C-alpha cells in the first residue's frame, strides 16, 4: 500500500521552518558527537515512532557516515548484539528513554543518564538530547501529515 501525504511536507510550505531546522541540525552536529552515533540515535528514535520517512533517511545517513549493513540491521535490537560500542549503547539507551517519555514516571532514569555521562561531556550530551528532540519533532510532523519514505525502486 502506498501512503499518500495529507499535505506537502510542512517545512516546504513554511520556508522559515527550514531555517530553524537547519540551525538545529548544525547545533546538534557541532558538539563533537560522531556523526555515526547521531545517525544511529536518529534511526532508533524513528523506528520507535514508526516514521518510515525518517527510518529511510536515518539508514541512508548512517550509510553515508560509514555504517555497515550489519550494524544498521541490528539497531532495533542493539542490546542483543555485539556490534555497538559502550558509548553508542549509552546514546541509544538515552535516545530510547527520551523518545518513550510516557512509558515510565522517570522517563530518563538516573542510571541511563549516568551511563551516557560516562561517555559524553555536557556539550555532547546536550547535542544528543537536542538531536533526539529534533528527531521526535520530525517523526511527529511526518506521522501527522503521513509523509512516506521515498519510492526508490529500481
TrEMBL record:
The family database entries (InterPro entries) matched by this protein are listed as: AhpD-like, AhpD_core, CMD-like
**In the record, which residues are listed under signal peptide?**
none
Q: Kindly list the organism's lineage.
A: Bacteria, Bacillati, Actinomycetota, Actinomycetes, Micromonosporales
Name by which UniProt lists this protein: AhpD family alkylhydroperoxidase
> Gene3D superfamilies under this entry?
AhpD-like (1.20.1290.10)
**Which residues belong to any copy of the Carboxymuconolactone decarboxylase-like domain?**
15-97
Tell me the organism: Micromonospora luteifusca
Amino acid at each position: 500500500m502506498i501512503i499518500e501525504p495529507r499535505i506537502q511536507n510542512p517545512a516546504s510550505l513554511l520556508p522559515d521552518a527550514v531555517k530553524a531546522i537547519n540551525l538545529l541540525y548544525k547545533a546538534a552536529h557541532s558538539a563533537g558527537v560522531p556523526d555515526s552515533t547521531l545517525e544511529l540515535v536518529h534511526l532508533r528514535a524513528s523506528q520507535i515512532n514508526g516514521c518510515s520517512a525518517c527510518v529511510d533517511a536515518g539508514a541512508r545517513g548512517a550509510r553515508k557516515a560509514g555504517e555497515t549493513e550489519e550494524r544498521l540491521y541490528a539497531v532495533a535490537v542493539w542490546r542483543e548484539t555485539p556490534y555497538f560500542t559502550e558509548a553508542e549503547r549509552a546514546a541509544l539507551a538515552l535516545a530510547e528513554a527520551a523518545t518513550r517519555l510516557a512509558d515510565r514516571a522517570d522517563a530518563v532514569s538516573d542510571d541511563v543518564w549516568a551511563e551516557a555521562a560516562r561517555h559524553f561531556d555536557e556539550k555532547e550530551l546536550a547535542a544528543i538530547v537536542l538531536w533526539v528532540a529534533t528527531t521526535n519533532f520530525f517523526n511527529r510532523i511526518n506521522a501527522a501529515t503521513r509523509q512516506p519514505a521515498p519510492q526508490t525502486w529500481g
